[in-house]
Design brief:
2 copies of one chain form a homodimer. Chain A is an alpha/beta fold. Helices cover 43% and strands 16% of the residues of chain A. The first copy, chain A, is built from 9 helices and 9 strands. Bound molecules: nicotinamide-adenine-dinucleotide (2 copies). The structure holds a DNA duplex.
DNA sequence: TCCCGTTTGTGAAAGAGATCACAAGAACAT
DNA sequence: ATGTTCTTGTGATCTCTTTCACAAACGGGA
């Protein structure tokens, strides 16, 4: 049943899940239609149905999808039935913000460690996590079985940080530094570059109205 | 001039630009081949050439692309020949990090204002910017001609923040809150959701990675 | 001048992803 | 039971993106 699922599909699944959690916990809705989900996630009804159909059939014709069950299905599909242990490398401005981010826990991620090279930051307690020196990185990754590393070190140190994380057993990296990281086969990387997104917005602004659909 | 350019192309252009700036400023290279650019931005040589060819022909056959000139061309294409004024809404953890982010200035963005609803945060100086009350938002956006708003308020306040920004004249929004924003036609939005990216990594780890179980 | 190794620019082909359109299923009223 | 209404699931189709492949251009050397 594990076919080739595109990254864009996975992204949308994550959005559906985000919305389903809201519907379930906050809005107490018990069913939702593909059209409803599409509306609140910025896609089309057909796209929602197609995305879900890759993994099975979860809805009832005429009724829609049961919110709770679909949420659980998506968690299963995305691999979120287990909790994931995460470490933050670089306890500076962005690293501190992430360490204090309350949502991770709710969403299945446990930030269990933080590392910094700056002596003056070591020992700090940030969001309940003690900042450790790099010398303890490998051991901590192994002991606590950290699978995901978030890189929040300066650009110049980012590749080195990635190497350390991978060397210590990390199998996925979320990179906040604006550089392309080289990692061995089998290590997953996602990049978050604020500037890149801002530039995308500029392009839209500059090339006349962004969603100028039909007007030519 | 250029017709429908896809978002993925624009994203790559931004990556090329990021790399070209490195090559120009740090590594002092004066030419680069499509293969070289591809290598350091995670794509293919053919893709680089095709992307650039949508806007003109900037290279010399047999030689490659002149780094400096191509950088300037990309800045032109992306609309980065002007500086853009940006405001941050929500001066909390992530908002503070962004206000202290030094790279924006280098990349053509000026963070000129910050807003918060919390009385105790108003008046703070974060990264050289004074945190203002929401009551001053509209006026400041107009006076300083702010085009881009970065939303860093809690999920529950995000839509409201977006409405205020748009009402005050913002034409683009970079949204850090994990919700889909509804904005009027003509306003560009990009979303940065850390959790969504982490979930994407989990999916990869769960399917492609660990014990490659192709159990049908 | 002509040849040779190199790298671009770009139509054409292949591949992916999104959209369409509709039969099939489910609930409910009569 | 039958009809009505609603919404899913999915093959077929369409559109967009990426990859391929090669002629055209460039610089250097003989
Ligand atoms: N501040 C932001 O809002 C922001 C936004 C987007 C991206 N980023 C990126 O995130 C990264 C960090 O930015 P920041 O603003 O938090 O910078 P920062 O200087 O505040 O923090 C960086 C931290 O990393 C530590 N560090 C340096 N080398 C290290 C190493 N080899 N191993 C471990 N730790 C090391 C430093 O001691 C420092 O504490 C940068 O790459 C930046 O481009 C920052
Ligand atoms: N902390 C992180 O690392 C992180 C990472 C990714 C996304 N986010 C998202 O960014 C947003 C902010 O997160 P945070 O961790 O900085 O929270 P935070 O509570 O530290 O900061 C939020 C700030 O927004 C202010 N605020 C509340 N309502 C407002 C309004 N209507 N207008 C203006 N300001 C208002 C609050 O006073 C507070 O100062 C959230 O949506 C969060 O999900 C945070």
């Amino acid at each position: 049943m594990a076919r080739k699922i595109s990254e864009s599909t996975v992204r949308r699944l994550s959005r559906y899940l985000r919305r389903l959690r809201e519907l379930d916990a906050r809005e107490r809705r018990s069913v939702v239609s593909s059209a409803g989900l599409a509306q609140s996630t910025g896609t089309t009804a057909a796209q929602v149905r197609k995305d879900l159909s890759h993994f099975g059939s979860f809805g009832k014709r005429g009724q829609g999808y049961p919110v709770r069950a679909l949420r659980e299905q998506l968690e299963e599909i995305l691999g979120l039935t287990q909790r994931w242990r995460v470490a933050v490398l670089g306890a500076g401005k962005i690293g501190s913000a992430l360490l204090g981010y309350g949502y991770f826990t709710q969403r299945g991620f446990d930030v269990v460690a933080a590392f910094d090279s700056d002596q003056s930051r070591i020992g700090l307690d940030l969001g309940g996590v003690r900042v450790q020196p790099l010398s303890e990185l490998k051991r901590t990754f192994e002991d606590r079985r950290v699978a995901i590393a978030i890189i929040a070190t300066p650009v110049e140190a980012a590749q080195q940080s990635a190497d350390m994380a991978v060397g210590a057993g990390a199998r996925a990296i979320l990179n906040f530094a604006p550089v392309k990281l080289d990692v061995p086969e089998g290590v997953a990387v996602r990049e978050m570059d604020v500037t890149l997104e801002l530039e995308g917005l500029c392009y839209m602004l500059t090339t006349g109205g962004p969603a100028a659909d039909d007007t030519e």
